[in-house]
Amino acid sequence: MRFTFRSWVISIVLAAGAFVPASATTIGFEGVATTAPVVPATPYTESGFKIVAGGLAPTFNGIFPAGLPGVNTDGSAIFGWCNERTLCQPIFGLTYGGGDFNISSIDASNLVPSAVAGSPIPPGLAIDLTGFKQGGGTVTQSRVLVQDTLTTYSLSGFSNLWGLEITTNIEGAGTNGDVAIDNLVVQGIPGVPEPATLALVLGGLGVTALRRRRSPKH
Is residue 208 predicted with pLDDT exceeding 50? Predict the structure, then answer.
């Protein structure tokens, strides 16, 4: 087989293509089979992404199906948790099994409508997000919740993360501080080889090219 410059370029492109970020996807908490109003959720996995829980009473969380009375589901399933002082203050971590990832937005609100909780949400109730950058460093943003309305919050700089932490800044009294999130727009980044490994890959392609060039023609 005669080796051509074109086939060599194609080989390089195919090798590089293995490290192109995947298309953005949305973690929407849909499709969970349940006959109960709440499904204990963590650890939860969707599209290669995993959510785990820690902190105080980390099991006080769940997936709430669309249309559940007394919950701000906004027409779709949501992920919610208890956020009450001295009782439950969980911390959630998000990772991607295939490598690093980006996250560009998240929907959030209070879990229990204020009319059902019997009081408004605590002033300034917010979700705090901390992204842990590959190679070191962090990026943080806090988003104050809009009462009774799942609102989309854009995130800036949350790229090339190996992990994301989600917490709340204020604990409620009773159910008025419980929190809901939905529609995490994420993008997985397949594992990128170390420079030395990449050099070996490219070097191997070069050796293959040289051998083909030197092989006798038939």
Answer: no
